[in-house]
Amino acid sequence: MIITTDKKELLEFLNQKRKLGSSIGFVATMGYLHAGHQSLIEQSAKENDITVVSDFVNPIQFNETLDFESYPKDIDRDIAIASESGADVIFIPGVNDIYPRFPEIDFKVIIENDKRALFIDLEAKSRPKHFDGVVTVVTKLLGLIYPDKAYFGEKDYQQLLIIKDLCNEFFPGINIVSCPTVRESDGLAMSSRNARLSKEQRLSALAIPKAIFAGIEAIKSGEKNPFVVEEIMIKELCKESALSIDYCVCRSPVDLEPIGRIVDQARVLIAARLDSVRLIDNLGWQKESK
Question: Is the pLDDT of residue 66 over 80?
């Protein structure tokens, strides 16, 4: 596996492979890799000749300095996991490689005047300008690597939809592949932030997947009112007093707009805090075709 911090070296390698007709898959990460990242890398390795993994903690998508500074890092571990999962290249740029004049950002993608829920509600509402930082770094990475396929997990579902929207607009030749959320054996969605939870907080966090599954079970049992589904999930979350609920909703999986009645499909989404650690989770339901 090639390990590089240099954009020119990465480009030279990818250009050589393209001349040979190799397909390229890409997995963008912020490091501290876990089984969720592994599943993305493994899927890319199965579907492409070359798989590139980026390892970069993007400073401009954090709303809180503490969250950025406390984000877990272990480059040696990341390299080992990426290699074992089938990556051919791991790209580990520094902040100034991505933003040459940092902390000044001369070139930035800004989402403005889009009134869709996707861009103004849920994560966008809770974390102002967060998605500006996400689409800026994703634009830079996709423009640099320009893969045939790029793999993103459904755990960050709103981000996934926004990146699909971004690619439809600016990178129509790149296929965005969505991959199911990978969970711990107890149901907690895998996240690098889980490492920051104390033993007690870890137990409290289990209320999140319990609420997610309770909401989906209610829908499977025939509940058509999204507000009732939300009440069921909130009741489950409230069993853990340590949890502070950010949002708990049942929405359209297509665009995250509110829905008046559940018919053929729905997505339940939760964000909650345990002190300084913010966790998100979601799960979709779709009516089975006869």
Answer: no
The number of angstroms, rounded, from the C-alpha of 220 to the middle of its chain's C-alpha atoms is: 26
- CA-atom Rg of the chain in angstroms: 19
Which pLDDT tens digit goes with each residue over 138-185? 999 999 999 999 999 999 999 999 999 999 999 999 999 999 999 999
CATH label of the domain that carries residue 260: 3.30.1300.10
Q: Confirm whether 10 is domain-assigned.
A: yes
Q: Is 37 a catalytic residue?
A: yes
217 and 165 assigned to the same domain:
no
Specify the 3-state DSSP secondary structure of 235: helix
Q: Which of 30, 36, 37, 50 is catalytic?
A: 37
Report the distance separating Cα 163 and Cα 196, nearest Å: 27
Number of domains in the chain: 2
Q: Is 222 helix (H, G, I), strand (E, B) or coil?
A: coil
Other residues' Cβ atoms within 10 Å of the Cβ of residue 269: 23
Domain end residue (candidates: 152, 179, 206): 179
What are the CB-based long-range contacts (under 8 Å, 24+) for 220-223? 220/285, 223/262
Whether residues 140 and 262 fall in one domain = no
In CATH, what number is assigned to the domain containing residue 158?
Answer: 3.40.50.620
Q: Which residue, among 222, 228, 215, 217, has the nearest Cα to 260 in the 3D structure?
A: 228
